[in-house]
Amino acid sequence: MKAAVVYPYWPRYREAIAALLCQQTSPDPEYVLISGPEGRDGIRTIDPRRSGIPVEQGGLRWRFVKNFWAGRFFLWQAGVAGLGLTKEFDAIIYLGQFNILSTIVGAFIARLAGKRVLMWTHGFTRERNSPKEFARGCFYRLAHGFLLYGDRARAIMRQKGFDPKGLHVVYNSLDYEAQKLIRSSVSEDELFRLRRALFPNPHHHVLSFIGRLTPQKKLDMLIRAGKKLHDGGFPVNILIVGDGGERGRLEKLSDECSMREFTRFFGECHDEKEIGRCLMMSAMCVSPGEVGLTAMHALAYGTPVITHDDPSRQMPECEAIREGVTGCFFRYGSVDDLAGKIRNWLTVNGACVRAAGENCISVIEDRYHPAAQIRVINAAVRGEEASGCSGGRTAARERKP
């Protein structure tokens, strides 16, 4: 079989899964990536020069199309609508966003032409009905099956009448092979030297965040929770890795809360080893708003994650957080509860850091890595029935910290 994977652009964080897709050999399907060459809204993309390198030498089987944006929302990709009419592809995987008009037309044509149509998408993540959700449902009906980011989406789509046999949960991932090498190469002495370089008191627990500094991340809650912990006689250091429009406001808030001495704004960082060191030296990764790939990053380095408990306002990656095992949840919007949960975790689990770290890594190795995703994608393209629990091992081994 031969399948096209159509995206507006290929973000950098998907480089590992894109490479594995292109390295597939018979009898597995052969994949061709199709997208525009450039990203949008500051999102870094895979280097388009990899399209000119043979797959056998680390390149990508990648073809470019022209993206035409109408304002900031609607997109038409030249040539995508006609893919269903070519004899080259047996299946087409579209990014399942119904603002991409060429996908709507293309999926309809591909269905008529007898192609297998899949959508790689969040699916429905909220249990509600609205005109927008109705339109989204009509759009999704164009597909034979779905590659979903989480189990919650699968459950909601089943409730809405979608055939469970086509609901494949593919989860999400980063470059886990690279992360494993970094994890094994960094020493405890190296991590302590980094803490000492960043903070006046390196013996305090470090609470970290990594990601874009946007309002959705609610990082003001992290600084306010840190202040409450200090006032309660439980001092912590805060490390914020990333940049964005919220940085100035957060720096001002750390001054107002007398937390500037204990808060470091590391800035934007794309050096994976540096990111790994920052996360490995942290006692917890704290994402007060939606957590997203921040959870994947932290757990891969053995660092527990805390985020809020409202699934309707969360990203699917929050499903990797298991209460009391790989992190915990605080009551949505409550700085007091956030501070209390942080203190409780660090107090109860402070002497069992190794067990907590092993649990975090085990969850990633169970299903949140590219090799596990490839198995699910291959099954979906071949038209196999979706399993109830997609991924690597059937269950992650958990050790109570």
Low-confidence stretches: 389-397
State the total count of DSSP E strands.
15
Summing up helix and strand content along with how strands pair, one would put the structural category as alpha/beta
Order of helices and strands: EHEEEEEHEHEHEHHEHEHEHEHEEHHH
How would you describe the overall organization of this protein?
It is a single chain. The chain is α/β, with parallel strands linked by helices. It folds into two domains: 186 residues, Glycogen Phosphorylase B (Rossmann fold); 191 residues, Glycogen Phosphorylase B (Rossmann fold). 35% of the residues lie in helices and 17% in strands. The protein contains 13 helices and 15 strands. It has a seven-stranded parallel beta sheet, with helices on both faces. The protein has a six-stranded parallel beta sheet with strand order 12-11-10-13-14-15, with helices on both faces. Strand 13, helix 10 and strand 14 form a beta-alpha-beta unit. Helix 10 crosses helix 12. It is globular and about 70 Å long. About 2% of the residues have low confidence.
